[in-house]
Design a protein that fits this description.
Layout lengths: L7 E8 L2 H11 L3 E8 L2 E10 L8 E6 L12 E10 L3 H10 L6 E5 L2 E7 L5 E7 L20 E9 L3 H9 L3 E6 L2 E5 L8 E6 L13 E8 L2 H14 L7 E2 L3 E7 L5 E9 L24 H7 L6
Parallel strand pairs: 1-4, 5-8, 9-12, 13-16
Antiparallel strand pairs: 1-13, 2-3, 3-4, 5-9, 6-7, 7-8, 10-11, 11-12, 14-15, 15-16
Length: about 300
């Protein structure tokens, strides 16, 4: 069993409109845009990162906004619900705020004993705010969100699967421990993690396969401290039979990827070097940052990207 993984690092999804996406996360949810860059494989498309003040691993939601992308189809083989942690007692504030801003899909319930507010993003993305005990994490109080209600980062994520057997084995190999079950959902917890500690496996034996599009999660990333820890994880996964990519430099972290038995794309990402490697903390997310290989094309790339702010 691995002991290098410390919870979630980031979750990356697809969107249909960069401006709308930026407004939702910075204005509606009050997160900080910590990086404005481009998709490494499609530099005519933004890659936008939102999180806390410095983009702490476990707080970062990222998006590839492909202009006018068709909506995804929810189903099995994907991350279903992305769960954000908020302080206990905060859901009254969020219910009023999101309702007043016209956010759709609002519903209050409980998940494993914790109060939960479900809602949808601009592309039908499935999100939850979950009241969580204090865990030492700070919050970014953007666009008028008070500290006592501000998002602390992820609580975790829910994976929708036809069958969870092989996924259970993988999570336990990665260091997660089975906690409890409720209906068709089983929770796994990372002991002594970074706060973004839970993975819920939701079983839907008869559901159709998901189809990626706007509103779909592209991949979910797990956090390790550094490249040495990542190399240990990669070797262990290869030895177990997983097909794992070589290490890829993503400028702000190093990444490896592999597909799980249930069809979900997993990434393992390092804390290093961080989002302040090319911007000071006070100005994170303001300038368009390009991977070095695209710098000679900056003028052309910039001309093709729609401004995301007025």
């Amino acid at each position: 069993m691995l002991n290098q993984i410390k919870g979630l690092h980031h979750i990356t999804s697809l969107a249909a409109d960069a401006r709308q996406n930026n407004r939702f996360f910075t204005e509606t949810l009050g997160l900080r845009r910590v990086k404005k860059t481009v998709n490494f494989d499609a530099p005519d498309v933004y890659h936008l990162y939102y999180g806390d003040e410095v983009g702490t691993p476990g707080s970062v939601m990222t998006y590839f906004p492909f202009p006018n992308a068709a909506r995804g189809r929810p189903g099995v083989g994907e991350v279903g619900d992305t769960q954000f942690a908020v302080p206990e007692g905060a859901l009254g504030y969020w219910s009023e705020r999101l309702g007043g801003l016209g956010v759709s899909g609002l519903s209050l319930d409980q998940l494993f004993g914790a109060n939960r507010l479900r809602f949808e993003g601009p592309d039908g993305d499935a999100f939850s705010l979950i009241e969580a005990p204090a865990d030492g994490r700070g919050s970014w109080t953007g666009n008028g969100v008070p500290l006592e209600a501000a998002i602390k980062g992820f609580a975790g994520a829910e994976l929708r699967l036809r069958d969870t057997g092989a996924e259970v084995e993988l999570l336990e190999f990665m260091g997660y421990q089975r906690a409890e079950s409720e209906g068709n959902t089983t929770r796994f917890v990372m002991p002594d993690g970074n706060g973004a500690n839970t993975i819920d496996l939701e079983t839907h034996p008869q559901a159709p396969a998901s189809r990626q599009g706007a509103g779909s999660v592209h991949h979910i990333a797990f956090a390790v401290a550094d490249r040495a820890a990542q190399a240990e994880v990669r070797t262990a996964l290869l030895d177990t039979g997983y097909q794992v990519t070589p290490v890829i430099d993503r400028d702000y972290f190093w990444a490896i990827y592999f597909r799980t038995p249930g069809g979900v794309l997993f990434e393992v990402a390092t804390h290093e070097p961080g989002f302040d490697r090319d911007e000071d903390t006070a100005h994170l997310g303001q300038a368009l940052k390009l991977p070095a290989r695209y710098e000679p094309m900056r003028e052309k790339i910039t001309a093709g990207l729609e401004p995301i702010e007025d």
